[in-house]
Amino acid sequence: MGASRVCEGSTPADRPLDSECFGDYYQWGRATDGHEKVDKDGNALNNSISGTLASNYAGAINPANLRGRFIANSAVPHDWTTGDGYGNNRKSEWNKTNGSICPPSFKVPSYTEFFTDVGASMSNLTTMGNHYMRLSRHGYRPYNDTSTTGNNIMDRGTGMEYWTSENDGSKFSRTIELATPMYRLRRRAAGYPVRCVRY
Predict the structure, then answer these.
(1) For residues 28 and 57, what is the distance between their CA atoms, to the nearest angstrom?
(2) How far apart are CA 31 and CA 81, in angstroms?
(3) Nearest by Cα to 174 from 154, 151, 148, 192
(4) Which of 23, 66, 93, 108 has the most C-beta neighbours closer than 10 Å?
């Protein structure tokens, strides 16, 4: 979601490093509201805010000063909202196919759905570049990122995790890490790209 083009490059190994295809960095279960935006150099387009969490998980985020901003949280459980402790409601939102986050007839995949599409390790750049999904090494935005002056994305060019729609207890949700591939447990206030699959 949010990429300006499919990954391109002069060779297949160059494609996963194309910053124009990295896309947006969503906090888990959150709708598209501007918090996810960074430029092609990894600089956030909307400032982070910390110390206040959203009281709801869907629609117009409350309090209003949080709308469109990356809600950083350095306190356990490192979530961006207090409104959905186990993440079941946000999982339901990300599984919708009505166009709420993904285009109509698409949804955020579960780990199993993503794994089925990927099918094998993506640790090799050429393998990634030749894959029909044109996957990228985009990095992530830390859950405690309060930077207001850019350099917001860690592991650009190496990190290759995408959010899945799966929650895991009261503190974590799952990404798929493509080098293995396997799932990782990540804090929900962190920002990772999202890929959608047809449902």
Answers:
(1) 10
(2) 12
(3) 192
(4) 108
Q: Where are the beta strands (DSSP E) in the chain?
A: 26-27, 48-50, 70-72, 106-107, 161-168, 172-177, 182-187, 191-192, 197-198
d(CA 167, CA 94): 11
Q: What residues pair up with 182 in beta bridges, in sequence order?
A: 177
pLDDT single digits (tens) 77-105: 999 999 899 999 999 999 999 887 899 99
Strand pairing class (172-177; 182-187): antiparallel
Q: Burial letters for 91-105: b for 16+ Cβ neighbours within 10 Å, e otherwise?
A: bebbbbeeeebbeee
Task: Identify whether the C-beta of residue 133 lies closer than 8 Å to the C-beta of residue 117.
Answer: yes
Are 66 and 59 in contact by the 8 Å Cβ rule? The answer is no
How far apart, in whole angstroms, are the C-alpha atoms of residue 105 and residue 197? 8
Looking at residue 102, what DSSP letter applies? S
pLDDT for position 151: 63
Bridge partners for 197 per DSSP: 107
pTM higher than 0.85 for the full model? yes
